[in-house]
Known about the structure:
Blueprint: H1 3-14, H2 18-21, H3 56-62, H4 78-89, H5 97-104, H6 106-131, H7 139-146, H8 151-184, H9 190-196, H10 199-215, H11 224-246, H12 271-284, H13 291-297, H14 303-332, H15 348-381, H16 390-410, H17 415-441, H18 449-473
Helix pairs in contact: 1-3, 4-11, 4-14, 5-6, 5-12, 5-14, 6-13, 6-14, 6-17, 7-8, 7-17, 8-10, 8-15, 8-16, 8-17, 10-15, 10-16, 11-14, 11-15, 15-16, 17-18
Amino acid sequence: MSRKSNNEQKESLLGVNEEKLNHENGNMSMGDYSLMNIKEPTKMVSVQEIPGKRSTRDLSSSLQSSGETKNVGGNATMTASVINLTKTILGGGVLGLPYALSKSGYALGIVLFVTFALLSSIGLHLLMSSARMVPNSTFNSLSKLTVPKAKKLVDFAVILKSFGAATSYLVIVGDLMPDVMHEWIPSDNSSANDTFGNRRFWISVFTITFVIPFVRFREMERLKSISAAALLCFVYVLIVVVVYASVSSLNPCKNNAEHCKGSVDPFPIKSFDFFKVLPIYIFGFTCHHNACSITNELSNNTMQRLNTINVCSISIAMISYACIAYCAYFTFGSEVESDILSNYTKSWAVLMVRIVLAISLAWSFPLQCHPARQCIASLLFEKSIEELNNKIFYVITYAFTLSAFALSMAVDNLSVVLAFVGSTGSVALSYVVPGIFFYFLHKDQPNFPMKHVALAMIILGCLITPFAVVIECL
């Protein structure tokens, strides 16, 4: 085959769309690459028949027999995608963000919110852009194209991160509900208190009622209703926190104390405390394990539509986080505790916060099960979850669910384990893995600025991971 023919094949399969990028002269500035304007520079490839490590040069010849295959998306709407991705972001981390803000100061805090939201959005863009290149993309299929020797490690990282988050949701449910019951049930009714004040009772009730009926869905798009309901629960939490911060006649202090507000500072008072809470900001925006599913299921999944979902979801989460964190901080100042609900009085409104937050977290469980199930299928069977029959699908689904349930019943404090998982898994999935996928899929394309952004994300993630682990261990 002639050199000209080879070049034409490479350009048709993996080349840059010069007209779309307006990049003929190699003089495009980084400012032209805003997330809302970046268009996908490469066409799609198939990895169905690629068993081992290949360079992007090798892929062109490997795919000649099967032809070009595109990830054309599914039937999900943009609204459903934004709802599911936003709910993936908004989780139990909201309870710790006011504490993180109290250690970083209100002036520096807004910089951290914007910085880590932007970094998370860049990671999502890189991952979604890579996922569009592969039909029915998974972390495993993308790993085969980029780092095949590490494909099992990537799958394991997703499983570990998702399992840790799902288990923590049930643990938090077990912490929230007994406090509500102790306030509502008379103290002299010991039998009722023993039953309804038991954390295991409520973990069981919420797992049966809010988790098991919904983890069975194969498509994430079918979770849009419970994700929307969970977001409404989150809106109630936001309203209560804002009202207590703005209405002076309401006493937010626990035990009806007259004064419970500490100092409010613009910058950190103690450097060590500041560095220790930085991972909380990072973990708060982790949602990348569902990026492939969002890409696969979105109808007409152009890069512009995916970027819109990305920016909308991250922006909604950042605004919600900032409102809750700042209102709680200005309410309690330096007296903010690591779990913000511990600061508030046991009024009916705050007790309802505990209930709706527990429901919201339980409905977030299926969003963690979805990517974990996909990676378990890849790890055990070298297949996507869509290729497995119903029997194996349900075995994987309920094995994951019951394992998380059993662990949450057995222990009531996963803080050390979850901190380690978050320090490693969250950073890897948010920064390192998206950067690796994007960089290696575009490594043969010179003068492409986003490739250098991907490399910077890899380096940043590799620097943050040991820092976060050390900080959590101190």
